[in-house]
Amino acid sequence: MPKLYIGNKNYSSWSMRPWVLMKQAGIGFEEVMVPFDSFDADSHFKKTIEAINPAGRVPVLVDGETVIYDTLAICEYLAESHPDKTLWPRDKPRRAHARSVCAEMHAGFGALRSHCGMNIEADLREQGRIILRDQPQVRADLARIVQMWSGLLQAHGGPMLFGEFSIADAYFSPVGVRIKTFGLPVPREISTYIERVQALPGVKAWIDEALLEKRFVVMDEPYRAER
């Protein structure tokens, strides 16, 4: 059975994506949690992960002798390994579009990710109002998310971005978490989509387990001195 190495569920958005995908698709795996302590070279986290992935980051999927250490690469590997699961849309143009929006997430939205870090258990709505007031690039990232999701939901009729659940929904699931944590204003159709995604068994399981962690990692808490 493959092993998926992840960081804290409360904070690790990149770990969330393949974990949610595998859970929701019914792909068996062994979870190996490597909690964040620091990213210093001598930290427990770095020493543990670098022994598996020289890049020193999570997630990492280990399937026999194969080691995949990039989130999008993991998703592609899973899609190739489990063609029966339809992790990408079956239709070629839709599949190409789904890959495009996932790649956009992979490479972009830096302001949103930087200023609105994933923190499932926190209520940072007041901080969200200040961020939106002071950070025009966060406003631009949020507007692009709304534009993208609205267009996809309208084009494919929902309930997910490309009709049925796919890698795209798993890939954007941490964005929905950020929007809720920071109280970022979005149209009703977008908030409804976020609720639908978070009600999926695979996504709900991640969120529920994140809320049970009770690990306060200072380096991931720019807006709180303590819980």
Short summary:
This protein has 227 residues and is α+β, with helices and mostly antiparallel strands. It is 55% helix and 7% strand. It has helices at 13-25, 44-50, 71-81, 92-107, 110-115, 125-134, 136-156, 167-181, 188-199, 201-213; strands at residues 3-6, 30-33, 60-63, 66-68.
Secondary structure elements and pairings:
Layout: E1 3-6, H1 13-25, E2 30-33, H2 44-50, E3 60-63, E4 66-68, H3 71-81, H4 92-107, H5 110-115, H6 125-134, H7 136-156, H8 167-181, H9 188-199, H10 201-213
Parallel strand pairs: 1-2
Antiparallel strand pairs: 1-3, 3-4
Helix pairs in contact: 1-3, 1-8, 1-10, 4-8, 8-9
Beta fraction:
5-15%
Distance between the termini: 36 Å
Average pLDDT level: 96
Order of helices and strands: EHEHEEHHHHHHHH
CATH topology of the largest domain: Glutathione S-transferase Yfyf (Class Pi), Chain A, domain 2
Class based on secondary structure composition and strand pairing: alpha+beta
Q: Would you count the extended β strands for me?
A: 4
Q: How large is the count of helical segments? A: 10
Shape: globular
* CATH architecture classification of the largest domain: Up-down Bundle
**From the alpha-carbon coordinates, what is the Rg to the nearest angstrom?**
17 Å
